[in-house]
Amino acid sequence: MTGFSSRVEAVSISGIREVFEAAGDDAINLGLGQPDFPTPDHAREAAVEAIQSGAVDAYTSNKGTLELREAIAAKHERDNNLDVDPGDIIATSGGSEALHIALEAHVDAGQEVIFPDPGFVSYDALTHIAGGTPTPVGLRDDLTMAPETVEDAITDDTAVFVVNSPANPTGAVQSPEDMREFARIAEEHDVLCISDEVYEQQVFEGEHRSPAEFDDVGNVAVVNACSKAYSMTGWRLGWVTGATDRIERMLRVHQYAQACASAPAQYAAEAALLGPQEPVEEMRAAFEERRDILIDGFDEMGLECPTPKGAFYAMPNVPDGWVDEVIERGVVVVPGEAFGENGAGYARISYATDTETLHEAIDIMAEATAALE
Ligand SMILES: Cc1ncc(COP(=O)(O)O)c(C=O)c1O
């Protein structure tokens, strides 16, 4: 019988799914990693028009339509003060595919990929799938990743380090100084920095800066997506930008694995990026209000939680048995260890839910906390 590749045997189905399956049907789900808002109307309408006109019946260019890539370049100029050539962009099936092709194109068998622990689950899994060696590194007390920790972890075998700000699962936002340091480290050690910026629009304190701003040598690749910014997780539209030779290598993977991102999603994304940005600000304001409610709730429960400055997650320190106790009482939260060894003793709470439900969930979490005292 044909066996399975050791690369795929090294990964398992995400621990997050297991938690969802363990919860009852009427549970409050604070485990979800997606905004609870509709996709903006103008994005939906652009896709409908493109479908009806027949424009999406055929493959687009492998990199995505020129119009979409110009819209992405305009977004980088508007939001990041970055001059990106539309030729140096590949539209992908979500940020997920962008991470995948970036790692496939740069990681050789046995090479190391450094990423935050706790960190987004895909970094470990996609490193295995690329045949690389995951090298998770711990975080500061405020749950940001220290540039010196990354620098200390770099060896001759390091191919890539991943920066994620604002971060899943912590909500931490790296400072501009850190981002400058990450660019310096990528240059000095000649390794690729993949900057995962999918939560860029959800920043409540501080500001989002990209290490690409400080990169003079083409050693930073940026991964981004419409998924979280425009509540378009189901559309599957992200992108990667980087130096021309890197994009050419990533395109080799994308071309054969994907051909092109879904055409209707490309039209929707173009409209989302170029159209009114008010929905983005409305979501950001709603998330900030909910964050404050949640943090006050943890405070009253006596749970320590670094104040998340972005994304829509909080990561409180929780006593033994807390996650099970909370899930048993009907609120789904994700155990911190689903995001790496250093996540033990924490839980990830997503506040992508309305304030009424959030208050209800806070009451239940408070009861669970009291029951464990
Ligand atoms: C940090 C991070 N990067 C990338 C992604 C992938 O996003 P997408 O839905 O665009 O594939 C996610 C999704 O949860 C994420 O949390």
Briefly summarize what is shown.
The protein has 373 residues and is of the alpha/beta class.
What does this 3D model show about the protein?
With 373 residues, the protein is an alpha/beta fold. The protein folds into two domains: 6-39 and 278-371, Aspartate Aminotransferase, domain 1 (Alpha-Beta Complex); 41-274, Aspartate Aminotransferase, domain 2, CATH 3.40.640. 42% of the residues lie in helices and 13% in strands. It is built from 13 helices and twelve strands. The protein has a seven-stranded mixed sheet with strand order 2-8-7-6-5-3-4, with helices on both faces. A three-stranded antiparallel sheet has the order 9-12-11. The chain has a two-stranded parallel sheet with strand order 1-10. Helix 3 (41-53) packs across helix 10, helix 5 crosses helix 6 (121-129) and helix 11 (278-301) runs parallel beside helix 13. It is globular, with a radius of gyration of 20 Å. The chain starts with 5 loop residues before the first helix and ends with a helix. The relative contact order is 0.18. The mean pLDDT is 96. The structure holds pyridoxal-5'-phosphate (PLP).
| End-to-end Cα distance | 53 Å
The residue-averaged pLDDT reads: 96
Q: Helicity, in percent?
A: 40-55%
Largest sheet: 7 strands, mixed
| Low-pLDDT regions | none
Total strand segments = 12
The backbone outline, from C-alpha atoms, is: globular
